[in-house]
Amino acid sequence: MSYLQKQVDAFKSDLTSVSTKISNKRSAIAVSSQTPTPSPTPPITAKNNDLKRKRPEPSSVVYSQPADTGTGRYIMTQVTYAVEYLKSKETPQTLAQVIGYLSLQNRTPDSRRNIASILKRHERVEYTRDPTNATWDAGTYRFRPIHNIRSATELLRYLQNQPTAQGLSVRELKDGWSGADDAIDSLVARDQILVTRNKKDGNPKMVWANDPTLSQRVDPEFQHMWHKIKLPGKAELPGELVRLGHKPTSADASARSNVVNKEKKPKQRKPKKNGRTTNTHMAGILRDYSHLKK
Fold it and tell me: Is 127 helix (H, G, I), strand (E, B) or coil?
């Protein structure tokens, strides 16, 4: 019994030590679960305008090009005035006269040189060099019109040398030639040109060359007889043509009143055949009753 008693006591002691350890572990776990965990710090919220990066405003300056100072536009404006001045003069002008008209005498030599250089290359300006002076401000400038015509003799020569009988616009003649109307009237009076005029103001519109040798004078007596013939009025002309056996070209109301309108008969519609004919090999045996169909 003593041996068994010792075993029982050893078992109880072991059991007590094990239970003590288990209880200690549970208490440690409970304590650790009850300790508050530190909450995460909330992020610092800032205004979007403060955090958003400000982008630089785009610049309209193109650094690969020279700055627009307006000098180019100013020069071309002066050149336009200079061309209009030459057009009004119709005679060669020196650069000093052009500069004086533009009131640019006090400008720098470079600005005047630029204007002269542009005028020399302008398509509506004719530049003539001075053989005795080779400086940049020498020579004369003259307006170049569409047609190089500035007198009645030049106009007549131009019309006669044309390969075709094409007319010439008076509007183009007036481009650089203010005396075009007077020259045309003088040539018409001598039967050297033919002219068409505007109905509104009677100004010449187109001109052609005329050969006076082809003009034929009509006897005054014949002209008198011709003008004595009385023509029927516009309303009577179709009926007069019908009376003489002629067909009038115009569809006048008086001509249509004599025509009897024929009654138009209504067109009879042909019966439609439904489908295509079959059994053609029995045509001699079968009969056609399609005419009995309503």
Answer: strand
State residue 223's pLDDT score.
92
Residues 6+ apart with CB under 8 A from 173: 147, 149, 155, 180, 184, 207
Q: pLDDT digits over 240-264, tens only? A: 888 888 888 765 455 455 544 555 5
Instruction: Give φ, ψ of 221 to 5 degrees.
Output: -65, -40
Stated pTM of the model: 0.49
Angle formed at CA 24 by CA 18 and CA 25, multiple of 5 degrees = 95
Query: Terminus-to-terminus CA distance in the chain, angstroms?
Result: 137
The answer to whether 119 and 98 have CB atoms below 8 angstroms apart is yes
**DSSP assignment letter at 247:** -
The CA-based diameter of the chain, rounded to the nearest angstrom, is: 187
